[in-house]
Write a structure and sequence with these properties.
Number of helices: 13
Order of helices and strands: EHHHEHEHEHHHEEEHHEHEHH
Number of strands: 9
Helix content: 40-55%
Oligomer: single chain
Number of domains: 1
Largest sheet: 6 strands, mixed
Low-confidence stretches: 1-28
Strand order of the largest sheet: 2-9-3-8-1-4
Radius of gyration: 22 Å
Protein name: (d)CMP kinase
Structural class: alpha/beta
């Protein structure tokens, strides 16, 4: 299942990005022996890069990194395979155009760059290619897992806020959950125990027509569900009805059949936001975000793909070490805790 992240920035009038100079900040590292508990608790790029530097010659860490890298690539390939099937199914139904060609992507090698630097480069490109008068702005980020899409979006979000802009996020996962809620509600009303059989083209079209995107009574952009006895805004039920056991159980099945419908809904929502003068940050997989029109498209990649596994290994190590550190009341050093955590992680993958 593909979950797409939107971050909208409310802007009055036209949209302009404040001129800036490209950051020359370098990655901060320190010796593991000197890492404090406070640094470990940050669980951020500084912590991760410090561990990468410290364990660059460690065979144990290399083993963990290779395992995590292979696992990440395998998971990406499996997700892509499922997504392709969903896209092809949508094309066969005529929901999306099989001949659609998106604007070209701008490759960005993030090797040796911090998320802050990547965000600066993206905004610099936007400044160079924006028109003098422009309603809203849409930025699309794609890339393999581990290339830093999520952290880059967070940095872009942060930098836009510093310009005095109001920022909001919206997960496309709620669209899948909304359709699933309608599907399960329909099955209950029709006493149908075979939900997958109910996912016909006509039913899906009917349920999607019950979803709309616009401002709720509070003046905030929101998804409205209106049909089958339901009339509610997603913001009001996203932590209740949309996360009920029944909805959660059937999301994978519904998502397999609704990739096209959700892609179309998302593209229309982005267009509404852009026309309203809102900046939209869109992060996801190419096959889904391709259908959103924008010249600002970036594909993040690592010229050294082994770093994908190394980053993931560092993330697992610092998370495990922090958990262990918080459980201990003695004076064991962070270095000793990290070493013990690494031993345990390597032992776990060896046994598997």
């Amino acid at each position: 299942m593909d979950f797409v992240l939107f971050a909208g920035t409310a802007v009055l009038g036209r949209y302009f990005v404040t001129p800036r100079k490209t950051s020359t900040t370098t990655t901060t590292t320190m010796s593991v022996a000197a890492i404090s508990l406070e640094t470990l608790q940050q669980q951020n790029a500084v912590t991760s890069n410090t561990l990468l530097e410290e364990y660059k010659d460690s065979r144990r860490f290399a083993k963990l990194a290779a395992y995590e890298g292979d696992l990440t690539i395998q998971r990406d390939q499996e997700d892509a395979s499922k997504l392709i099937k969903g896209i092809e199914f949508a094309q066969q139904k005529g929901v999306i155009d099989p001949h659609f060609v998106p604007e070209p992507y701008i490759p960005m090698d993030v090797l040796g760059k911090t998320p802050d630097q990547v965000a600066e480069l993206i905004l610099q490109h936007v400044e160079e290619h924006q028109t003098t008068e422009q309603n809203g702005l849409v930025l699309v980020l794609v890339g393999l897992s581990g290339t830093g899409k999520g952290t880059t979006v967070a940095k872009l979000n942060e930098k836009l806020q510093r310009q005095g802009l109001s920022v909001t996020t919206w997960s496309n996962g709620n669209v899948f959950r909304s359709v699933t809620l309608l599907a399960t509600t329909w099955c209950e009303q029709h006493q149908n125990d075979d939900l997958e059989a109910a996912l016909t083209k006509d039913n899906l079209a009917s349920w999607m027509s019950m979803l709309s995107f616009g401002k709720n009574p509070e003046g905030v952009y929101d998804i409205r569900i209106q049909g089958l006895g339901l009339d509610c805004y997603v913001s009001k039920i996203q932590n209740t009805l949309l996360k009920s056991p029944t909805v959660s159980k059937y999301i994978p099945t519904v998502a397999q059949y609704t990739q096209g419908e959700v892609i179309v809904f998302a593209a229309q929502a982005v267009e509404i936001l852009q026309r309203a003068g809102i900046c939209v940050l869109l992060e996801g997989r190419e096959l889904t975000v391709n259908y959103v029109r924008t010249p600002h498209r970036f594909v993040l990649h690592l010229s050294d793909e082994s770093l994908i596994g190394k980053r993931r290994a560092a993330q697992r190590l610092m998370a495990a070490a922090l958990h262990d550190a918080e459980q201990r009341a003695d004076t064991t050093s962070v270095k000793e805790i990290l070493e013990a955590a690494l031993d345990r992680l390597v032992e776990d993958i060896t046994q598997n």
